[in-house]
Automatic annotation (TrEMBL):
Protein name: Predicted metal-dependent phosphohydrolase, HD superfamily
GO cellular component: plasma membrane
GO biological process: defense response to virus
Ranges where the record places region Disordered: 204-247
Species classification: Bacteria, Pseudomonadati, Bacteroidota, Chitinophagia, Chitinophagales
Membrane-traversing stretches: 271-290, 299-320, 398-419
UniProt-listed Pfam families: HD, PycTM
Domain HD/PDEase stretches: 26-141
Residue runs in coiled coils: none
Top-level taxon in the UniProt lineage: Bacteria
Major subcellular location class: membrane
Compartment annotation: Cell membrane
GO molecular function: hydrolase activity; nucleotide binding
Amino acid sequence: MEAEIIISAAKQYVTREYTEHPHPTLVYHNLMHTQQVVKMAAQLAAHYHLSDEEMMIVMVAAWFHDIGYLYGEGKGHENRSADIARTFLAKNELPEHIQQQVAGCIQATQIPQNPTTLLEQIVCDADLAHLGSKDFKDRNKLLRHEIALVFNKDISGEEWTAGSIAFLESHTYHTAYANALLRPAKEENLQKLRDKLANKLAKHEKEQPVTLEEVTAGKAGKAKEGKKDKKEATAGKQKEKAAKPDRGVETMFRTTSTNHIRLSSMADSKAHIMISVNSIIISILLSVLFRKLDDYPNLVIPGLIFLATSVTTIVFSVLATRPNVNSGTFSKDDIENQRTNLLFFGNFHKMPLEDYQWGMTQMMNNSEYLYGSMIKDIYYLGVVLGKKYRLLHNAYNVFMFGLILSVLAFIVAAIFFPVRQ
């Protein structure tokens, strides 16, 4: 309850400060941006099931992370924001360790971000969540407009786009959940920027040849050098596009994995049916038929054949559904040498969350490792499926032929070896 009260008080304080100290130049770092960061921070915090105290630290840091813009220049605003947050927490009689953690989360948002704890990672990822959102284009325009107003400088479209590309290429999300949730959209936004810049360069080339480097530096070069650099950039772009799997490949991975999982579920269902049916047969044989063997000795052999059929069928069905679990651990060397597939729970279920999170981040930052792991995952799913269906095939064959043999044995026993009263 205390955590909710502090979070509510932080919300009221920050909202009042933005209302009472309006800055016409802050068209991006305004109350709307803070509210969006708070919303994403709450989503990330909920995913990681933070305690009440940890949730309070993240939410207060999210509310205060940019308030320093109201009291000075953009440079160093993180330290001002952290000081204001500490003052607020001290007035509310929060302990020193909470004040330090909130300040640490705010200061970790300074570019380049370098968070060291999960709470700092959550706040950092929430602060730049717009990079992987559908609103990126609009938010990026607002940031450009704000910088132009603050520095009284007109930034060309090519220069801003090139800078945005460089920033997105250098940025990585720190939590595994943010990577899974936001990275795909961020990659799409990055590709749109690359296409936009390429189109502008191509259009400008027709009028006056320039290179990407010259646009960024604001200079014009010679025509020959411009054409040569453009060819190299085009070749590099084509090479990068060829190296990066497109949506069709990702759809193939998703569809194949889904089909394998569906087939595995079907195999388990069939095995459970065989186990249930034969368990009923065995219970009937033991409770009804075998009690009457003294009166019907001619049914001993047919009964044993039927019992052996059911038991063997159950054994094959159980083997088809019996899970195999690996050691559940991996080392740093395994990740660096790409020897561990973190997409399979058996390789990490005994590892601490921090180690697994680090391993997943390393894998997601390496497309070769990521797609290689997906290929291995599909392959081993197929291997398991092959084993399941082979054992299931044996179970059905045993049941089918054993049932036929048992019925024939009962018929022979009844006709040729009748019980004489």
